[in-house]
Amino acid sequence: MEGFDTYRLLSDEVGEEAAQQVFEVFAGYTVNFPKKVTLFFRDLEILERFDRGETYEQLARAYRLSPQQIRNITSRVYRRRTAEKQRELRLNF
User: Fold this and answer.
1) Are residues 56 and 44 in the same domain?
2) How far apart are the C-alpha atoms of 59 and 42, rounded to whole Å?
3) For a disulfide at 14, which of 5, 18, 52, 79, Cβ 3.0-4.6 Å?
């Protein structure tokens, strides 16, 4: 019954067709979705919303984090982006 519950949860989130595809690909496997991947996409979303003008306080409420945590996230993602752009520039020369 556990597999059916998992299927139902997944199909509620992503839709029936996508859930079927996931189950076909991963049938019989134990799948672990690393938290870091989820946090990576959350952090990108936070930065996009910040760039569109939302404040640290608004984002903190939306993500249930402190304003300082939001500052740390935006700073870290900006640094990562800058480093990636610099690497790309060096590769193009």
Assistant:
1) yes
2) 11
3) 18
63 by Cβ neighbours in 10 Å (0-12 / 13-18 / 19+) ranks as middle
16 shares a domain with 45: no
Residue type, 15: G
> What is the model's pTM?
0.62
Cα 26-28-31 angle, rounded to 5 deg: 55
Q: Using alpha carbons, select from 15, 74, 10 the residue that is nearest to residue 42.
A: 74
pLDDT in tens, the chain (93 residues): 466 788 888 899 999 999 999 989 988 888 888 888 889 999 999 999 999 999 999 999 999 999 999 999 999 999 998 888 888 888 776
Q: What's the burial of 10, exposed, middle or buried (CB within 10 Å: 0-12/13-18/19+)? A: middle
The Cα 67–Cα 21 span in angstroms is 39
